[in-house]
Write a structure and sequence with these properties.
10 strands; 5-stranded mixed sheet; 2 domains; Fructose-1,6-Bisphosphatase, Chain A, domain 1
Length: 257
Amino acid sequence: MAPVSDGAFAAWLAGKVGELLLGLQATMAFDDPDALRHAGDKQAHDLLVTELSRWRPADAVLSEEALEDNPIRLTSERVWIVDPLDGTREFGEPGRSDWAVHVALWSRQTESLAAGAIALPAVSRVLSTDVAPSYPPLHPSAAAGGPIRIVTSRTRPPSFLPALASSIGAELVPMGSAGAKIAAVITGEADAYIHAGGQYEWDSAAPVAVALATGLHASRIDGSPLVYNRPDPSLPDLLVCRADLAARLLSAVSQHG
């Protein structure tokens, strides 16, 4: 039986999809990474859509893996924004844990994200708005007077980040999935995540929902709000960080970005 509350439901569903993905890795192994990735994307999407249709039949869905975007979401009261497998590249590489499942709910009543969950199956962790994580402590290296840690894409980091990091004395930490990177900020393993150069709503909706519930800062890199369920789902940049670092990082981005 699925949970009644949306936050608990998001966590339950993200965890269920994560279990499916771990099962695929176990049965298909990593002999054919492309086949594993394709199966992961498809089966995770199919399970998400099936469970949402069963337990939330009146709600619309925006999924990365859908064959087409159903415009009904633009007039729906509730829209689930999901990324069935965030970090598909990393999912197909043995030994990597930086891939995730994203499940978020957008509500027309508030014109904002109402619930969300990030599953990190490879480390048996689900972070959700149902029981929001505590505000994270400063990373130990920064607390000891060392550099703050900024997680960034391992394959397409923003070109301005090295100069930005140098200007504020930060350490760049490459990582896979956007969900895994924002989860690192939520748990205090990193102090900030900066991305520019291309993403979509499903890349950030669920982790941003959890980050905001935790009390972290989340915005576009120019400081403007992150807006979801728009006709064009492109949402190319974002900053997620400790609230006390937001002004400093937004200023640095304005100088170097």
